[in-house]
Design goal:
This protein has 228 residues and is of the alpha+beta class. The chain is built from 10 helices and 4 strands, in the order H-E-H-H-H-H-E-E-H-H-E-H-H-H. The protein has a 4-stranded antiparallel β-sheet, covered by helices on one side.
C-alpha cells in the first residue's frame, strides 16, 4: 500500500521489455586526426544488431551532416580551426551535445565524449549478456585510437550473470570436496563420509530442480543459496 509499490506494479504490468539506454564513451585523443575513426566508430556502433540504429545520437556524425561533410573531409584545414568550429557548433545548432563533450581548460582539445543510444528489446538474461559482449567487441578496434568503451548501468548486474554459471559449478565442486575431506577426518569413516557427500549432492540436485519448476533463474542470490 505504498506509492513505490504501485509504481513498480504499473511498470511490471505495462512497461516490461523496455529499451535500455547504453552509452558509447571516447577518451582523450586527437579528434582532428581521428575524425574519420570517430565517424566509423559511431557507424559501427549503430550497425550492431543489439542496438537500435535510430537511437544512436553521435555528435560527430550530426556535426558532419550539419556542416556538409567539412568536419570529416578537410577538418577545416587545421586542428585549431577544427576545435574552434566544433565549439561554435555545440554552442549553437548542436547545443544538445554540449554536455556530451568534455574540453580541456583552454577549450583547445577534447578530453572525452559521450554518445547516447538504446539497446533493442531483449527478453532473456543470456540475450542481455550477449548484447553487452557484442557492443564491447564492436568498439574494441577503436580502443587504442579513441579509448572507446561502452557502458550501461545494468552492466553491473550482467557482469555477474556472465560468470555465475561457471563460478557456481566450480564453487559447488570445491565445497563438496572440502566437506568430504572434513567428514572423513571428523567421522573417521570413509563410508559415512561418502553418505554425507552423496546427501549434499542430492540436495543440490533438488534445489536445481526447484529453480526450474518455480520459474526462477540462476543469479548471484540463487548461487549463494546453492552453495550454502
Amino acid at each position: 500500500n505504498t506509492p513505490a509499490y504501485d509504481a513498480l506494479q504499473i511498470n511490471i504490468d505495462y512497461f516490461t521489455g523496455e529499451f535500455i539506454p547504453v552509452f558509447l564513451y571516447t577518451q582523450e585523443a586527437d579528434y582532428f586526426t581521428q575524425r574519420s575513426n570517430m565517424i566509423n566508430l559511431c557507424s559501427d556502433f549503430a550497425a550492431n544488431s543489439y542496438v537500435v540504429e535510430a537511437s544512436v545520437n553521435c555528435w560527430m556524425i550530426r556535426w558532419d551532416e550539419a556542416e556538409g561533410g567539412i568536419p570529416s573531409s578537410s577538418g577545416y584545414g587545421s586542428a585549431a580551426a577544427f576545435y574552434g568550429n566544433l565549439s561554435a557548433y555545440i554552442n549553437g545548432r548542436g547545443a544538445q551535445f554540449k554536455e556530451n563533450i568534455n574540453w580541456n581548460t583552454e577549450m583547445t582539445a577534447v578530453l572525452a565524449t559521450k554518445t547516447f543510444a538504446q539497446f533493442d528489446k531483449i527478453g532473456s538474461a543470456n540475450g542481455n549478456i550477449r548484447s553487452m559482449e557484442s557492443t564491447r567487441e564492436t568498439v574494441a578496434p577503436y580502443k587504442e585510437s579513441l579509448g572507446a568503451m561502452v557502458f550501461s548501468p545494468p552492466f553491473v548486474f550482467w557482469e555477474g550473470l556472465a560468470v555465475v554459471y561457471y563460478e557456481t559449478i566450480r564453487n559447488i565442486i570445491i565445497t563438496l570436496v572440502v566437506v568430504y575431506l572434513v567428514c572423513i577426518i571428523f567421522l573417521a569413516d570413509i563410508w559415512a563420509a561418502t553418505l554425507c557427500g552423496m546427501m549434499i549432492v542430492l540436495i543440490d540436485v533438488c534445489l536445481l530442480g526447484f529453480l526450474h519448476w518455480f520459474g526462477m533463474h540462476m543469479n548471484v542470490v540463487t548461487s549463494i543459496n546453492l552453495l550454502l
